[in-house]
Amino acid sequence: MRFSLQAQYAICGMFDLAYNGHDVPVAVQAIGERQVIPARYLEQIFQRLRRAGLVTGKRGPGGGYVLARPPAEITLCDVVVAVEGGAERWFASEVEDAPAVPYRPKFLWPRLGSRFAGVLTAITLEDLCREAAQASVQRAEVALSYVI
């Protein structure tokens, strides 16, 4: 199985938000610049993440997205399912596109999807942030703005 580009971008965007967000709204443009993802495409992905209840958005100056739950409560499976659908669909194209060969194990794909979902469920955004900190991945500077 290979993640779609959309799932990869969603994971990168959510990781960036968890690692650099500091509980303040982060603009999609900033995430896109750091992760080298087109902001317009990332905005579409974040709309799906918002509908799935993984992020909340704030409009206007100083707006952006924040995590809707703590990073320890958001798994990679949550992120992938938000943009691609349930685990039963992850291997569906392999089953649907396969020629009718009597000995091809079509029963295997749903089981693999389920096991793969289990692995993704075991990894949280907090786990990724901890590994990034251990690997000395630089954090973004917090941009504070004061209005008087």
Your description of this structure?
By secondary structure, the protein is mainly alpha-helical. The protein has helices at 5-20, 28-35, 39-51, 76-84, 92-97, 108-121, 125-134, and strands at 55-58, 64-67. It has one domain (5-134): Winged helix-like DNA-binding domain superfamily/Winged helix DNA-binding domain (Arc Repressor Mutant, subunit A, Orthogonal Bundle). Helix 1 (5-20) crosses helix 2 and helix 1 packs across helix 3. The protein is elongated, with a radius of gyration of 18 Å.
List keywords for this structure.
about 150 residues; mainly alpha; Arc Repressor Mutant, subunit A; two-stranded antiparallel sheet; elongated
N→C terminal distance: 53 Å
Name the beta content range: 5-15%
Work out the radius of gyration. 18 Å
* Strand-pairing-aware structural class: mainly alpha
What is the CATH architecture descriptor? Orthogonal Bundle
Strand order of the largest sheet: 1-2
| Percent in helix | 40-55%
Task: State the domain count.
Answer: 1
CATH level 4 superfamily: Winged helix-like DNA-binding domain superfamily/Winged helix DNA-binding domain
CATH class category: Mainly Alpha
- Report low-confidence residues grouped into runs of 5 or more: none
Number of strands: 2
Largest pleated sheet: 2 strands, antiparallel
Helix-strand topology string:
HHHEEHHHH
Shape label:
elongated
- CATH topology-level fold name: Arc Repressor Mutant, subunit A
- Number of separate helices: 7
Overall mean pLDDT: 86
